[in-house]
UniProtKB/TrEMBL annotation:
Residues 68-106 form the DNA2/NAM7 helicase helicase domain. It comes from Panagrolaimus superbus. One of its GO terms (molecular function) is 5'-3' DNA helicase activity. InterPro entries: Coronavir_polyprotein_1ab (IPR050534), DNA2/NAM7_AAA_11 (IPR041677), P-loop_NTPase (IPR027417). This is DNA2/NAM7 helicase helicase domain-containing protein. It holds the Pfam family AAA_11.
Amino acid sequence: MAEKATPAVRSALEAYRVAVSRIGKGTGVRAPRFRRDARDAAERASPAIPCWIMPHYRVSESLPVSLGEFDLVIIDEASQSDLTALPALLRAKKVLIVGDDQQVSPEGVGLEEEKIRSLMGQFLGNQVGLYRPQMSPDKSVYDLFKVVFAQGQIMLREHFRCVGPIIEYSKREFYNHQLRPLRMPRTSERLDPPLIDVHVLDGQRGNGKTNEGEARFILEEIQRIVSDPQMPGSARVGQDLTNTGG
């Protein structure tokens, strides 16, 4: 793509990069000007760029404001995305929402319930009754689309991140054994058993969240593992712990 890009597109992309870097935290007096510069540059470059990847706030900050500008918008980790993702969706002809309702969602901590109800009544009064409650600050984009497109959900069952014994608890307790762990560890990666239940006899919570008994046990266990010559990479792990103050 870089080889095919015209000089005009390359210039626009460089102008976009410079403008976004100048925006910084977006609180400076010149930030509005840099946002305009970024949008102008993105508008010139977007016809030649098939895919843009950015956090939600960057969409409104630096992409042209145009309905249906993109053929497809994908919201990843949508169960952790609040309604600030909606401006990205307005730019889509089609939408793909990827999320997991078993993960942490927005909490809306510190927001006044009466104020929320008042704003929802003022600005969302014409929304479909079933959709309106899903547009509160304590709901995620995933929650909203799970209601709006209830007939279009597809569960992805193949799990590649963890080996079977590691994901077993979550698979049993949260996913009704519907996940299929497909990662097969190499011989050098295997630990048998991979999980061990330990009862720390002197473990108790002290002031705040400190549990000296558990912390002491964890440190001793790490020291035992890194000093075991049969553990691959033990010297490197030990060096990493030393470098980080562990």
